[in-house]
Here is the input.
Amino acid sequence: MNSEQVAAREARKPFAVVTIAATTGSVPRAAGSKMFVYSDGRSSGTIGGGKFESLVIAEAVAAMREKKPLLKTYPLHEGETDSFGAICGGEVTVFIEPQRTSEALYLIGAGHCSHAIAKLAAECGLFVTVVDDRDELLTDLPPAVGRISDSSPLNFIASHDWQIDEALVIVSRNHEIDREALRAAVAQTGAGYIGMIGSRRKVRMVFDALRGSGVSDEQLSRVYAPLGLDIGADSPAEIAISTVAEVLAVLRGRTARHMCGRNDE
Here is the structure.
């Protein structure tokens, strides 16, 4: 994996690797030549340029959208039904491989539970970022976890371009921060999961306060609160297991039911 691929993965930018798999006759680039194509149609590198390359870029964007690889042959000579006016004289077979980016988990708060959740989520391969204004707590996070030092998590929540494979978990140090973070969160669309830690009493109080300020029941229905699966979690480590399991189940469209008794499926 080269540096550009690493950077794209770390930034969670969807991209596809386009490789010339085989050639016959006269063609602009040899087999093995590569190009990276991003979801917005930008590209890096070249497999030959011109109309041929623009067609491949469009195919790559479609393949990313459908999340399916594609092997396709392009005739670069006249007289073929699928020809597009190229006159090189050969044919090029291209392999388009969309790259899967891991789900992302953003944590508001850097306390004990947040640290436990961040550690487990990173070990599960998620892209993890913690947002807090306490720099001394951010420094103790595992190296694989991203850190955002911000005096107000609302700035991050409001400005982030939320995606369906991203989770927002609110586990701050007090219910006032949780309430305002949740207010900002439900005003956004796109996130695949929004969860808030707390007792049922705390959740009722926060929800009632938000309703009183104009937040609708429809907006609140998107929130998993109290967050996590019911495993009787008590310690930060157990809360992390409960939370990460729920996040993965929701983002992946799974039921989180028992695996036993599913041998016939």
Summary: The chain has a mean pLDDT of 89. The two ends are 36 Å apart (CA to CA). The longest helix spans residues 50-66. The chain is about 35% helix and 20% strand.
